[in-house]
Amino acid sequence: MQVTRELFNDVMVPNYNPSEVIPVRGEGSRVWDQNGKEFIDFAGGIAVNCLGHCHPALVNALKDQGEKIWHLSNVMTNEPALRLAKKLTDATFADKVYFANSGAEANEAALKLARRWALDVHGEQKNQIIAFNKGFHGRTFFTVTVGGQAAYSDGFGPKPAAVDHCDYNDLAAFEALISDNTCAVMMEPLQGEGGIISPTSDFIKGVRALCDKHNALLIFDEVQTGVGRTGDLYAYQGLDVTPDILTTAKALGGGFPIGAMITTASIAAHLKVGTHGSTYGGNPLACAVAEAAFDTVNTAEVLAGVKEREQLLRDGFAAINEKYDVFSEVRGKGLLLGAVLNSKFEGRARDFLVASTKHGLMSLVAGTNVVRFTPSLVIPLEDIKEGLARFEKAVADVVNG
């Protein structure tokens, strides 16, 4: 059967609007479409393909596990899941792991755990969840309500209650909102969908201190920032702030669907047998691939390489901007970067994405005003240079109309 873009319209629910490009093969940071056109991948499946496409370590792990056992229910003990869980706890603040299939599911588990902990320890009055405007935490009804973008949660009927929002990096507004009835605060340690916004040191440390003051749990959504994306294994490790619960997905499986919630033993104890679950969470195939991805990323060489690649990209964007004057700043950390359009090109991020695709570069947007880049953590330096050259051509097209 010939697959075309038109077939999408025939058979798929219309909640997506994919491009005409149909990729069929990838190797490293290069991708080829049905017509043989080559692209350099600065998108990484939205910060998912942390080792590019078809990395040998991941391919070998998948093949090896695929010849052993594919699926186990959670009434069985699972070797690949336990190996991965041990590595996650050894490398982080956490003692315990819960596996899911996605970032949204990991966040759902984190929010349910926080509510259960508060009910058990403090009583039913302690139920408020605070999150931040422009935040993004997934598309389940609970997580989309906690996410700070009403456009994603409006139009589906009554929302889960006791969820409040304030602006990111506004510590005074946060302090006015939090109280002894707050059970948890959920935040990204670097906002992704909201425009690649880093926290100030005073803000993120202030949030931690106020959570401690009011006996509220701090949940870090590291679905996008985790597994090396910022140059630390997890972003919290570069911020001198430790959360009580952390969620991780996207890069965790290097492209194979998996998510996890990690936390301390005392908090984890409140998800007793039967309180939460997942049919596919901890799938052996997913955990085997994720273990290979985790082992590959969690090295001094790869994490240092992220920072080297960040600087190469920043230098490239600066050179392009010197020539064309399109960006007001480049935000972000590591290989989660956002080029913010200046007033002359405000609202035209998608134009830059479309032009990039035309010139053989895969990029992203974060809202209407930020061009987002989340390439492989091990993208070859030559591919960065070539990708920047293609992006410059795209910028020139937009500037010259």
Fraction of residues in H or I helices: 25-40%
Shape: globular
- Radius of gyration, taken over Cα atoms and rounded to an integer in Å: 21 Å
Strand order in the largest sheet = 4-10-9-8-7-5-6
Structural class estimated from helices and strands: alpha/beta
Gist?
The protein is α/β, with parallel strands linked by helices. 39% of the residues lie in helices and 17% in strands. The model has no long low-confidence stretch (mean pLDDT 97).
Reconstruct the topology from this structure.
Layout (H helix, E strand, L loop, with lengths): L4 H7 L11 E5 L2 E4 L4 E4 L2 H4 L8 H11 L12 H13 L4 E5 L2 H19 L6 E5 L8 H6 L3 H4 L9 E4 L4 H7 L4 E6 L13 H13 L3 E5 L23 E4 L10 E5 L1 H4 L15 H14 L2 H25 L2 E7 L2 E6 L7 H10 L2 E2 L1 E2 L4 E4 L7 H19 L2
Parallel strand pairs: 3-13, 5-6, 5-7, 7-8, 8-9
Antiparallel strand pairs: 1-2, 2-3, 4-10, 9-10, 11-12, 12-15, 14-15
Helix pairs in contact: 3-11, 4-11, 12-14, 13-14
What do you see in this structure?
With 401 residues, this protein is α/β, with parallel strands linked by helices. The chain is 39% helix and 17% strand. The strands form 3 sheets. Strands 4-10-9-8-7-5-6 form a 7-stranded mixed β-sheet, with helices on both faces. The chain has a 4-stranded mixed β-sheet with strand order 1-2-3-13. A hairpin with a 4-residue loop joins strand 2 (30-33) and strand 3. Helix 12 (300-324) runs parallel beside helix 14 (381-399). The mean pLDDT is 97.
